[in-house]
TrEMBL record:
Keywords: Amino-acid transport, ATP-binding, Nucleotide-binding, Transport. This is ATP-binding cassette domain-containing protein. SUPFAM superfamilies: P-loop containing nucleoside triphosphate hydrolases. Gene3D superfamilies: P-loop containing nucleotide triphosphate hydrolases. InterPro entries: AAA+_ATPase, ABC_transporter-like_ATP-bd, ABC_transporter-like_CS, BCAA_Transport_ATP-bd_LivF, P-loop_NTPase. Residues 7-231 form the ABC transporter domain. Belongs to the ABC transporter superfamily.
Length: 255
């Protein structure tokens, strides 16, 4: 495996309740930056992430930094430094922010300083029950839990789903900072966020990868976007419309 790759997946298939939900996915994630995993609803993006983590039964080859993890259980994969920010946040509603974070701590070298720097609002709210936080604040807890530990790779699933445009920008800003710490494989429907964050895209359709390449090249080709995602990349009425984060645009050259 190329030394510039942190993750290499070959011929991945996976099933849920006996039904095949990932057919034959092969993809690479570079060792730096954000790689976006795109596709229409229900094509198997979340299932691909779960299969990489061993959360659902899977077959195929999965190399993390050159080491096979496709036969390992989830806890071993997490111990190897794969952080996970699940769809729908999955915070413990009845626990405080501080308790949510402490539960996520994997070892003695937790990055409390990173969490405090990136999420000062959470420090203020450390005694608040996570279930009483807004959706955006819960997303920050979910991200902070993953960033608390040293990660070699972050798997982040639809972090801006259901959030107001201003909050989408804040979450995207946090992801820009997170990507400085570890490479990210990001499932994201908001193409403005993808444009702001991702260097590369992997597009899935029918359980297989149908396009890979630079994010800008894909997003700038309306025919490709329409064919693979069923939306118009720049049309305001489309699902691609949404908040463009205020933060840095790491994939674009400075003006
Ligand atoms: N728990 C489950 N039981 C049965 N089928 C499931 C389950 N979870 C997912 N599926 C099915 O697996 C397929 C892939 O779902 P998955 O959530 O991976 O897609 P996705 O690309 O992430 O979709 P979306 O963009 O809508 O979140 C879908 O057809 C879905 O209905």
């Amino acid at each position: 495996m190329s030394p510039e790759l942190i993750l290499s997946v070959r011929n991945l298939s996976a099933s849920i309740a006996g039904q095949q939900v990932v057919e034959d996915v092969s993809l690479d994630v570079p060792a730096t930056g954000v790689t976006a995993l795109l596709g229409r609803n229900g094509v198997g993006k979340t299932s691909t992430i779960k299969a990489i983590l061993g959360l659902i039964p899977r077959r195929g080859e999965i190399l993390l930094d050159g080491v096979g993890i496709d036969r390992e259980p989830t806890h071993r994969i997490v111990q190897r430094g794969v952080g996970y920010v699940p769809e729908d946040r999955e915070v413990f509603a009845g626990l405080t922010v501080a308790e949510n974070l402490k539960l996520a701590q994997r070892g003695p070298d937790a990055h409390w300083d990173v969490v405090e720097t990136l999420f000062p609002d959470l420090v203020q709210r450390s005694a608040q029950l996570a279930g009483t936080l807004s959706g955006g604040q819960q997303q920050m807890v979910s991200l902070a839990r993953a960033l608390l530990n040293p990660n070699r790779l972050l798997l982040v699933d639809e972090p801006t789903k259901g959030l107001a445009p201003k909050i989408v920008g804040e979450v995207a800003d946090a992801l820009v900072r997170a990507a400085e710490l570890a490479p990210i494989l990001l499932v994201e429907q908001n193409l403005a966020v993808v444009r702001a964050l991702a260097r590369d895209v992997v597009v899935v359709s029918g359980g297989r990868v149908v396009h890979t390449g630079p994010a800008a090249e894909f997003l700038d080709d309306p025919d490709l976007v329409r064919r693979h995602l069923g939306v118009h990349g720049d049309a305001p009425e489309s699902a691609a419309a949404g908040a463009v984060p205020d933060g840095a645009h790491p994939t674009e050259a400075p003006a």
